[in-house]
């Protein structure tokens, strides 16, 4: 994670937008949970009330709450996407300017080990990969953690033991699934980032050398090499998609087990004490909606390996120092009458025979 620290420091200047995006994401999740929870309780309470409660049961207030939660979810989702993507684009813009400001003093001697395709890939693709860190890792994890705390606290007013059980299961899911799938997807994520960089580098060399390859009839060999690299990319992407599907399937399985556990424990509590049965429907739908908010978390760390590879590739360039250090302040000419004549001056790059 040390490779990500230099880039996380650059995000501080856009901390307001990114923090506002997190707040709006949390508001969206809570509105979605409230919508499903209130809808489930409303249907259960209406069924329990029946025709006998046609005049005594208040249908208007829960219906207004359902509509309000739906409106809040829609509006919050719109502004969350707007603010989060605007903040991410501003971060990427600042990161590209920062990267170019570090690249410019190195040219051309410091950039000799890197060809044009590799530099282009680092400057464009590797910078683009860094947006996954906020959109697919930080924001879902922070939102899921806040949802677990809020849902557990809210359900504790209905039944404390069931609320603690639900909160513990969700917390264990949050702590186990991301590291597990990070381990499983680390190899394919790193392979995807490296093979994509290799493919762009080979493609740039192939296009720039097209005339020579056609003349000497080596074009098919290069095409075969590009095809092989492309197949490696597809294989890594296939592994990532398989792991994503496996994470979602495992999360759905855990959700089903938790809902069954809530129904079983809740029914035992209803038999042992005289309580309103509608709270069990509220409890069940709330847990079901809370697990839906954990959906992006299961596959969140599948992207972190690609982000770390891109960050390390950028650090290889950003960590270099220019061979020539110019003074920060301009030197003043205190002796205008002195003239210097230079003859036979030449230069060459290290390890290059040409002068």
UniProtKB/TrEMBL annotation:
**Where does it reside?**
Cell inner membrane
Q: Which PANTHER family match?
A: ATP-BINDING CASSETTE SUB-FAMILY B MEMBER 10, MITOCHONDRIAL (PTHR43394:SF1), ATP-DEPENDENT PERMEASE MDL1, MITOCHONDRIAL (PTHR43394)
Query: Where is the secretion signal located?
Result: none
Pfam families recorded = ABC_membrane
Listed under GO biological process in this entry are:
amino acid transport
Starting at the broadest rank, the lineage of the source organism is:
Bacteria, Pseudomonadati, Pseudomonadota, Gammaproteobacteria, Enterobacterales
Name one cellular component (GO) term: plasma membrane
Originating species: Tatumella ptyseos
| Record's keyword annotation contains Transcription regulation | no
Membrane topology type: Multi-pass membrane protein
The protein in question is named Glutathione/L-cysteine transport system ATP-binding/permease protein CydC
The membrane-spanning stretches of this chain are 41-61, 133-156, 162-182, 250-273, 279-304
Catalytic reactions of this protein: L-cysteine(in) + ATP + H2O = L-cysteine(out) + ADP + phosphate + H(+); glutathione(in) + ATP + H2O = glutathione(out) + ADP + phosphate + H(+)
Q: How does it assemble?
A: Forms a heterodimer with CydD.
Q: Which family does it belong to?
A: Belongs to the ABC transporter superfamily. Cysteine exporter (TC 3.A.1.129.1) family.
């Amino acid at each position: 994670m040390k490779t990500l620290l230099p880039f996380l420091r650059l995000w501080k200047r856009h901390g307001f937008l990114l923090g506002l995006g997190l707040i709006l994401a949390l508001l969206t999740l809570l509105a979605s949970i409230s919508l499903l929870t209130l809808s489930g309780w409303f249907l259960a309470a209406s069924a329990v009330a029946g025709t006998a409660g046609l005049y005594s049961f208040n249908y208007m207030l829960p219906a207004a709450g359902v509509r309000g939660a739906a409106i809040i979810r829609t509006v919050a989702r719109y502004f969350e996407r707007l603010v989060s993507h605007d903040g991410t684009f501003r971060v990427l813009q600042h990161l590209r300017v920062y990267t170019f400001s570090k690249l410019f003093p190195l040219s051309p001697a410091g950039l000799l080990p890197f060809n044009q395709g590799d530099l282009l890939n680092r400057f464009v693709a590797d910078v683009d990969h860094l947006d996954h860190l906020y959109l697919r890792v930080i924001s879902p994890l922070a939102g899921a953690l806040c949802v677990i705390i809020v849902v557990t606290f809210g359900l504790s007013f209905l039944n404390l033991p069931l609320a603690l059980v639900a909160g513990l299961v969700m917390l264990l899911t949050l702590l186990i699934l991301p590291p597990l799938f990070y381990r499983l997807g680390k190899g394919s994520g790193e392979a995807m980032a490296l093979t994509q960089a290799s493919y762009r580098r080979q493609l740039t060399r192939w296009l720039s050398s097209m005339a020579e390859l056609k003349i000497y009839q080596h074009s098919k060999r290069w095409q075969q090499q590009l095809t092989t690299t492309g197949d490696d990319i597809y294989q890594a992407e296939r592994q990532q998609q398989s792991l994503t599907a496996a994470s979602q399937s495992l999360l759905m399985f855990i959700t089903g087990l938790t809902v069954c556990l809530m129904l079983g424990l809740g029914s035992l509590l209803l038999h042992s004490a005289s309580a309103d049965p509608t709270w069990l429907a509220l409890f069940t739908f709330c847990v079901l909606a809370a697990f839906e908010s954990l959906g992006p978390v299961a596959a969140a760390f599948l992207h972190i390996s690609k982000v770390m590879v891109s960050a390390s590739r950028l650090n290889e360039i950003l960590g270099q120092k220019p061979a020539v250090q110019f003074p920060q302040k301009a030197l003043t000419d205190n002796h205008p009458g002195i003239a210097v004549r230079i003859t036979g001056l030449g230069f060459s790059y290290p390890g290059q025979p040409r002068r």
